[in-house]
UniProtKB/TrEMBL annotation, chain A:
This is ABC transporter permease. InterPro entries: ABC_transp_permease. CDD domains: TM_PBP1_transp_AraH_like. It is a multi-pass membrane protein. Pfam families: BPD_transp_2. The chain crosses the membrane at residues 32-50, 70-88, 95-114, 120-141, 153-171, 191-212, 242-263, 275-292, 299-321. It comes from Nocardioides vastitatis. Coiled coil: none annotated. The keyword Nucleotide-binding does not apply.
TrEMBL record, chain B:
Pfam families: ABC_tran. Keywords: ATP-binding, Nucleotide-binding, Repeat, Transport. Residues 1-22 are annotated as: Disordered. PROSITE patterns: ABC_TRANSPORTER_1, ABC_TRANSPORTER_2. One of its GO terms (molecular function) is ATP binding. This is Sugar ABC transporter ATP-binding protein.
Length: 364, 534
């Protein structure tokens, strides 16, 4: 995964080849430093609590262990956060991804249940395709409201966030629909080459997105629109198309996440599927170093952010935090991570440590 | 100590030796600051003596603001020392610098308009009584400070009710009240009229007599010669020289600032006046209009021709440019491009028809600050190719390298972030962005506003060269001299319509002013009325 993504990212930011001490310097200056550090710290905490936490064993040709579980469980958040990264890069936000995930899960499950041959592989593939096609329509709707009508993204996507759950309920008739299809459930629990299929799907999407944004000019144009929309328009950038594209892409990513979540339980509950996943995704993006104000984005950062969020969910029971304090603990960790990342907070800490050292600012 | 501004003259070429009547209040030695890959300051030194007005001179991007911000603790320095009254210091915050007696008044007034003058002057250090603010004591203290500066301003009046000039003086009064030993005035005169400047100088002279060291930044050379005693000249982030003002002629000063002779500008003067209005126009507007911004206007533009547009703010000059480019859509009228009728619904349509437009608002409508110089340059070409066809890296590198060299963009680093460049260099990058698309029509709206004289000359020379090679240019500028220097034909606009069009053979600035004024009202009266419209 890193192989596909590193060259374009690195090539954009540094010109000359790097060796030895300069490599260290570059790593220290990398915007990925703090998210990766946070993830490492979290893993260390887990190892202290459970020394066998990082153990991975091979059984029936599959890898098992906490780390593998984390990878598997991270797939939905990772997918949603991936789409969210591009949306946020254009100065937008998409609150409807959780509802879209629910709709996708609902559509996929009801199609499978309603099909003539419920257990067939073709049924599952057909159902998922239809679900994703519907997500394209939902993304077009969001993109239409934002880029054509000009509604603020947070309000525009709020519409579908609320209405989407209702749509999903309509699809499932308000029932919890259970499916029985091996191909479908393999999407969440299956293994390929010893690795969880869900994780591989997510990683493949990240790789495809990396190539699409950094090997073409899409990434630069997305950033240009996010940094200065009017200047981009006057330079001839079709910002409407670009904004529309990222919302459609975000919806498809959310739909894929919804299908994986449904496959994980072999059922869909339109009320709870993907509930609050948009918030986890936004957090993952922010932890990964993409600013909510738009502009430059980092897909690798988002990957690290999503892994962090998933690891955190695993950490809470592992270190014995009572389940009632679950959300509070999560909130505190997130605040801590955001503080570490804030240059201002770091400067305050540094000034406390080493008397009068001046603050480094950017030219206005 | 109090009279050091009348100090003995110093040799003009070598830096001034350290021993003299007053010890420096501040001495900055070998200060270097780097932003990313941009060396903003390179071993710059500055000495401030008590009771002097010290002018900080240099073009935009020379490092004046950076030096000031290094002194006041806004930026941290990478190397070098700051010695304040014999002690080494590094200010971590602007507040720390202020506590050490260094006060700064910026170009824009940073005060609270809906508080009173006294409240603004003592904001954050109000005299207290019984846990509340002692309003009477505050007004009294403000009055004392204002009296000391010879300012007749009612301390209890609301700040926002005063003109900008008075607000600026209040800002200075506020700075002085902090027992300032050093007062930094960063372009305080840019929005003041002559009387107001005189008033400001009076205040500055009083402070100088009190032994305050004043750093004065201004683009107006006459003002420097009127008020400043000594000056430090910067260029490209380096120290050029410290000089006594009295020993330096204006010509010398300009040469020190830009580091080369001004011959580029002179050469241009002998060159224009080629008009080839034969053949069909490349761009023709017929009765082009838009409600609220432009009345029906005709304009023809021929190959290899520079058409200058003169007019005051709000005359419709920018509006015309935006309609020609499709940045706004016209209500009526039509456009012909190479004799075929076109409707421009968006900038994109115009770009596809080989029209380019550089907006007057560089920051809001041109610069993509967080992208690199290279990305900024390639943006328009890449946008017109679509995202699926990225420009090959080799082509990209070649184009960017060529234009950085041809336009003398500094730093010559394609990976530098656009926001770290000075205004003049940003403007050159934007010019490159359009030249890379190889347009046939180039519309430049105020391409030289707010940039230094060197960059200005380079851009003007480039425009003349482009026209010689066959490009058609619409050149809009508030500076009539510049319009006349470059144009083959001059269009004069007023009240949102074209009021005259003259071949530029024997037209002078005063002719144009007369044309503008001749249509009722005086130009100055119009300016005021029209700028209030925006």
């Amino acid at each position: 995964m890193t192989d596909t993504l590193t060259p374009p990212e690195a090539g954009r930011r540094t010109a000359s080849p790097v060796r030895g001490p300069r490599l260290v310097a570059r790593l220290l200056a990398s915007p990925l430093l703090w998210p990766v550090m946070a993830l490492v710290v979290l893993l260390v905490v887990n190892v202290v609590a459970t020394p066998s936490f990082l153990d991975v064993r091979l059984q029936d040709g599959h890898l098992y262990g906490n780390v593998v579980d984390i990878a598997r469980n991270s797939a939905p958040v990772l997918l949603v956060a991936l789409g969210m990264t591009l949306v946020i890069a254009t100065r937008g936000i998409d609150l409807s991804v959780g509802a879209i995930a629910a709709i996708a899960g609902a559509v996929a499950c009801t199609r499978i249940v309603g099909a003539g041959d419920e257990g067939a592989a073709a049924t599952a593939i057909m159902a998922c395709t239809v679900a994703l096609a519907i997500c394209v329509l939902l993304g077009l709707w969001n993109g239409f409201l934002v880029s054509v009508v000009g509604i603020q993204p947070i309000i525009a996507t709020l519409v579908l966030m609320v209405a989407g759950r209702g749509l999903a309920m309509l699809v499932t008739d308000g029932q919890i629909t259970t499916v029985n299809n091996d191909t479908f459930s393999n999407l969440a629990s299956g293994f390929v080459l010893g690795l969880p299929l869900a994780f591989l799907v997510a990683v493949a999407m990240v790789a495809v997105t990396g190539v699409l944004t950094r090997r073409t000019a899409l990434g630069m144009l997305i950033e240009a629109v996010g940094i200065n929309p009017e200047a981009s328009r006057l330079a001839g950038v079709r910002s409407r198309t670009i904004i529309w594209t990222v919302y459609v892409f975000g919806a498809v990513c959310a739909g894929l996440a919804g299908v994986i979540i449904a496959a994980n339980t072999n059922s869909v509950n339109a009320n709870s599927l993907g509930l609050w996943i948009e918030l986890d995704a936004i957090l993952a993006v922010v932890i990964g170093g993409t600013a909510l104000t738009g502009g430059r984005f980092s897909l690798l950062g988002t990957v690290v952010g999503a892994l962090f969020i998933t690891t955190l969910a695993r950490t809470i029971p592992n270190i014995g935090i009572p389940s009632e304090a679950n959300y509070l603990f999560k909130a505190m960790v997130v605040v801590a991570v955001c503080l570490i990342q804030s240059p201002r907070a770091r400067a305050v800490l540094r000034v406390r440590r080493t008397a009068p050292v001046a603050r480094k600012g950017n030219p206005a | 100590m109090t009279t050091t501004h009348e100090e003995p003259p110093v040799t003009a070429t070598t830096p001034v030796p350290g021993e003299r009547a007053g010890e420096p209040v501040i001495e900055m030695r070998d200060i270097s600051i780097t932003f990313g890959s941009v060396r903003a300051l390179d071993r710059v030194s500055l000495r401030l003596l008590p009771g002097e007005v010290h002018a900080l001179m240099g073009e935009n991007g020379a490092g004046k603001s950076t030096l000031i911000k290094a002194l006041t603790g806004v930026y941290s320095i990478d190397s070098g020392t700051i010695v304040v009254a014999g002690e080494e210091h590094a200010f971590a915050t602007p507040a720390a610098a202020q506590a050490a007696g260094i006060s700064t008044v910026y170009q824009e007034v940073n005060l609270v308009p809906n508080l009173t003058v006294a409240e603004n002057m003592l904001l954050g250090r109000e005299p207290r009584r019984l846990g509340g603010i002692n309003v009477r004591g505050m007004n009294r203290r403000a009055r004392e400070t204002l009296d000391r500066l010879g300012l007749d301003i009612d301390p209890s009046s609301t700040l926002g009710d005063h003109p900008i000039a008075v607000q600026q003086l209040v800002a200075i009064a506020r700075a002085v009240d902090v027992e300032a030993r050093v007062l930094i005035l960063d372009e305080p005169t840019s929005s003041l009229d002559a009387d107001e400047v005189a008033k400001l100088f009076e205040v500055m002279r009083r402070l100088r007599e009190d032994g305050v060291a004043i750093v004065f930044v201004s683009h107006f050379l006459d003002q420097i010669y009127e008020i400043a005693d000594r000056m430090t000249i910067l260029r490209n982030g380096r120290l050029v020289e410290e000089r006594m003002v009295a020993d330096t002629t204006q010509l010398e000063l300009v040469q020190l600032m830009i580091g080369r002779e001004l011959e580029v500008l002179d050469r241009l003067d002998h060159e224009h006046t080629r008009t080839s209005t034969d053949g069909p126009p490349v761009l023709k507007a017929i009765g082009l209009s838009r409600k609220g911004s432009l009345e029906a206007t005709d304009l023809s533009l021929y190959d290899g021709e520079v058409v200058g547009v003169a007019g005051l703010l709000g005359s419709g000059r920018t509006e015309l440019a935006r309609l020609l480019f499709g940045a706004d859509t016209a209500d009526h009228g039509s456009l012909e491009i190479r004799s075929s009728r076109r409707r421009l619904r968006s900038p994109r349509h115009a770009i596809d028809r080989k029209i380019a437009f550089s907006s007057e608002d560089r920051k809001a409508e041109g610069v993509i600050g967080d992208l690199t110089v290279a990305d900024n340059m390639m943006l328009a070409l890449q946008a017109s190719r679509g995202w699926l066809r990225p420009i090959p890296q080799a082509v990209r590198n070649r184009l960017v390298g060529e234009y950085i060299e041809a336009l003398d963009i500094r730093p010559a680093d394609p990976q530098a972030l656009m926001r770290n460049l000075s205004g003049g260099n940003q403007q050159k990058v934007l010019l490159a962005r359009w030249l890379i698309t190889e347009p046939e029509v180039l519309i430049l709206d105020e391409p030289t506003r707010g940039i230094d004289i060197g960059a200005k000359a380079q851009i003007q020379a480039k425009v003349a060269e482009l026209a010689r090679r066959g490009m058609s240019v619409v050149f809009i500028s508030a500076e009539l001299e510049e319009v006349l220097r470059l144009s083959d034909r001059v269009v004069v606009m007023r009240d949102r319509r074209k009021i005259a069009e003259r071949p530029n053979d024997d037209v002078s600035v005063s002719d144009i002013l007369e044309i503008i004024a001749g249509h009722g009202g005086t130009p100055s009266a119009r300016t005021e009325e029209e700028s209030s419209r925006d």
